[in-house]
Structures are given as structure tokens and as C-alpha cells.
């Protein structure tokens, strides 16, 4: 921790921190940075091989002990990551299979793009000075502003967990590019919860990152998605690899190599928090459907099925209009006469009242209650009904008595 400004010695100045309080030779953070660079092999020509080893020998003595501890701590299992989208695997099954087989072969492939400055390879690192303007502590995402097709596009989320570069339709419409230029995409996007979204298409767009002269320009393939979002675009792993960018969420900073040194794009912490708040708020809201010109109606009766043809009322007995049957009106005369004759010859099978319904012979079917004869019968408690219900019950019981059912 650094001492307050009023307690720092004005006589001492650190060139690394560009502040008073201690000398450059006493700066611990600078020593740690130099040791890290030495371990990575960047300062080999400045290392004195004949100098006492000091802490280096101490680390060598501690190394065997650390290796023993690492050997004892065996992993309990393997948790694989989830990926999806087009990414480098292509948009069809054959190219994705070929892309997966590449991981089985070890090849030495030179970098297609090597940027050097002054004859030395450029090193990308982050220091205390990169915390400038960042309010700590925080867990904010990196939301930046880039130049897309010569348009200054804000609210771009940097997400190295995304396997695709996404451009939302509301931002694509403002680029004044015809939708006819979109290429079809067959592979859907799979979200965290497993939901799938089918892109409208893909398009290659020019993206410029950084400020002159430390700028870099690449051509990214964006998937156009028509879904609500507080962001205009998402730069995933494909775009970050094209930029050769290193992202530090702690510093809210993205750095990348250019021909004139290391370029950088700083995230906007205030915009990131606004977008996060909008995302959380919109998730809890449902879609509202606007209904206009509502026609108020009463209770609708259920529609009954209608016959496909009219029917004719045929008395089953001559002169008795109470006992009638119905036959189709579109039958031929011969078929109609034959059907009516058949029905009248078998009129005894029709029942016109409850008294005419015969009981089923016990030889055919018998219904028995599983009652233990050793148990005494229990009389149910008398139930009281409303007067109108008592009248309805009495009418039904009288019908059963008249029919001889009870």
C-alpha cells in the first residue's frame, strides 16, 4: 500500500511510478517487473551470469518440494468448456470435423503477422499506470468504442468467451448496408442456458482499433442477430485473435501490437455499468401486447358439430309421430326404402323410455362391492341440501323408482 501524499518524502522520486515517496532503486514493484522479464528471457543480455544467485538458488531448492506437492494433488476429474457458433470451425459439419482433427497433429506453423518495433519484438504488459481512470474495486465488463466501416461505434462488448463476433441488427441498420450483402449462415448461436438463435446472415466489415499512429485495421466476420441488446456488437475470440489483442478486465484495457508500438483501447466503465443495468432490468420484463378495438361479447356457447346433410324424420310405426328415426336426405330412393324397412322390422331393439331398458342377466355380468361381512354397517351422516337441490334429488329418485331400477 502506498502512503498518503502528505506523508511521502518529497526528496525521493521514483521514475517508474513518476511520483514522490521512494527512490527508483527502492521500488519493489519495479524489481518484481524486472524479475518477471528476466524469467521470460527478455533481458538476457543484461543479466550478469557471474553474480551470486541469491533468490535464484533459493527457488531451485524450493522447486523439488513444490513438485512433490503438485504430484500429491491429483485432479478429481475434468470439466470441459462449452463452445458454439461458427468460429474457426466453419459453417458445415465437414469443415468442423477437419478443424477438430487439427488438434491431433503437432505442427510448427509460423505466425502470419509479426510486428516489430526498432528491431525488438514488442512486449505487451500491464502495470499500475494502466489503472488510470479505473474505479476500484470493480467487476465491470470491457465495453469499448471502435471504428466500424468508418462509423464510430460505441457500446461494443469485449467477450473472449464468445466463439463468434456478433453485430446486432439495430446497429447494422445504421451502417447503411443493404441486407442483400448478407451471406447465409446455417449454424445457430447457442446461449448459456441452451437457447438457440439463428443469425440473419454474416458479413465482413472493416474494424479499426486504437488512435493514430498506434492503430491497427482488420476485417472481421460478423454474424447479424435480430434480438434486443444494450450493446451494439460483441467482439469474441475470432476478432480478438485477428487484432492479436490482450485484454485485462482488471485494468479495463485492451492492448495490441501495431507498426508503431503497442496500441490500446480503454473500456468505458460508466457505459459498461449502464449496459449491465439495462440487461438485468430487461430480463425481468415480459413482452407487452397492445390490443386495440376490443369487441365486448357475452359468454359464447360452444359450437356443436353440424351434420353434413339434412335428415328426414321417419316414424317407426305408422300413425305414431312420437317414435321417429332419422335417415339421410341424400340417400337414393331404393336405399332409403330398404333402410326404413329394415329399421321398422327391428323396432323392438329401440327403447323409448327407461321402463323398456332391460336389465343385464347375472349370467353375463355381476357387480359386487368388496365389503367385509364381519364389519357392522355404518350409517352416513345426513346431509342437508338447499331446497332447490332437494327437489331435484326427489325428482331423480322418483324416476328411478318408476323404472324399477331401485
UniProtKB/TrEMBL annotation:
Biased composition (Basic and acidic residues): 8-23, 43-68
PANTHER family: GAG-PRO-LIKE PROTEIN (PTHR33240:SF15), OS08G0508500 PROTEIN (PTHR33240)
Organism: Cephalotus follicularis
Protein name in UniProt: Uncharacterized protein
Coiled-coil residue windows: none
Region (Disordered) location: 1-23, 43-96
Membrane-spanning intervals of the chain: none
Amino acid at each position: 500500500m502506498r502512503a498518503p501524499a502528505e506523508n511521502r518524502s518529497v526528496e525521493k522520486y521514483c521514475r517508474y511510478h513518476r511520483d514522490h515517496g521512494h527512490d527508483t532503486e527502492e521500488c519493489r514493484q519495479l524489481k518484481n517487473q524486472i524479475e518477471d522479464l528476466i524469467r521470460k528471457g527478455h533481458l538476457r543480455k543484461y543479466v550478469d551470469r557471474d553474480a551470486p544467485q541469491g533468490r535464484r538458488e533459493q527457488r531451485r531448492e524450493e522447486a523439488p518440494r513444490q513438485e512433490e506437492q503438485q504430484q500429491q494433488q491429483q485432479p478429481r476429474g475434468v470439466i470441459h468448456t462449452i463452445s458454439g457458433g461458427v468460429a474457426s470451425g466453419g459453417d458445415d459439419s465437414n469443415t468442423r470435423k477437419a478443424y477438430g482433427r487439427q488438434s491431433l497433429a503437432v505442427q510448427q506453423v509460423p505466425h502470419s503477422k509479426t510486428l516489430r518495433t526498432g528491431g525488438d519484438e514488442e512486449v505487451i504488459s500491464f502495470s499500475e499506470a494502466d489503472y488510470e481512470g479505473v474505479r476500484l474495486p470493480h467487476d465491470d465488463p470491457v465495453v469499448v468504442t471502435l471504428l466500424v466501416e468508418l462509423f464510430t461505434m460505441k457500446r461494443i462488448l469485449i467477450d473472449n468467451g464468445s466463439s463468434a463476433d456478433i453485430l446486432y441488427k439495430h446497429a447494422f441498420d445504421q451502417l447503411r448496408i443493404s441486407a442483400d450483402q448478407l451471406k447465409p449462415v446455417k449454424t445457430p448461436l447457442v446461449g448459456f442456458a441452451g437457447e438457440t438463435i439463428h443469425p440473419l446472415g454474416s458479413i465482413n466489415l472493416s474494424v479499426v482499433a486504437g488512435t493514430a499512429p498506434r492503430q491497427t485495421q482488420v476485417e472481421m466476420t460478423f454474424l447479424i442477430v435480430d434480438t434486443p441488446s444494450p450493446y451494439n456488437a460483441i467482439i469474441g475470440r475470432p476478432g480478438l485473435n485477428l487484432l492479436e489483442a490482450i485484454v485485462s478486465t482488471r485494468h479495463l484495457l485492451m492492448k495490441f501490437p501495431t507498426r508503431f508500438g503497442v496500441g490500446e483501447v480503454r473500456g468505458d466503465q460508466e457505459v459498461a455499468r449502464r449496459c449491465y443495468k439495462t440487461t438485468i432490468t430487461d430480463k425481468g420484463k415480459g413482452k407487452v401486447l397492445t390490443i386495440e378495438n376490443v369487441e365486448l361479447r357475452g359468454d359464447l356457447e360452444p359450437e356443436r358439430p353440424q351434420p353434413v346433410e339434412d335428415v328426414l324424420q321417419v316414424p317407426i310405426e305408422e300413425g305414431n309421430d312420437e317414435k321417429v328415426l332419422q335417415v339421410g336426405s341424400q340417400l337414393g330412393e331404393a336405399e332409403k326404402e330398404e333402410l326404413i324397412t329394415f329399421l321398422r322390422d327391428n323396432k323392438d331393439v329401440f327403447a323409448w323410455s327407461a321402463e323398456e331398458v332391460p336389465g343385464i342377466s347375472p349370467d353375463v355380468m355381476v357387480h359386487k362391492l368388496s365389503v367385509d361381512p364381519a364389519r357392522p354397517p355404518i350409517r352416513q351422516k345426513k346431509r342437508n341440501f338447499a331446497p332447490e337441490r332437494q327437489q331435484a334429488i326427489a325428482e331423480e329418485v322418483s324416476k328411478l323408482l318408476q323404472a324399477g331400477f331401485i
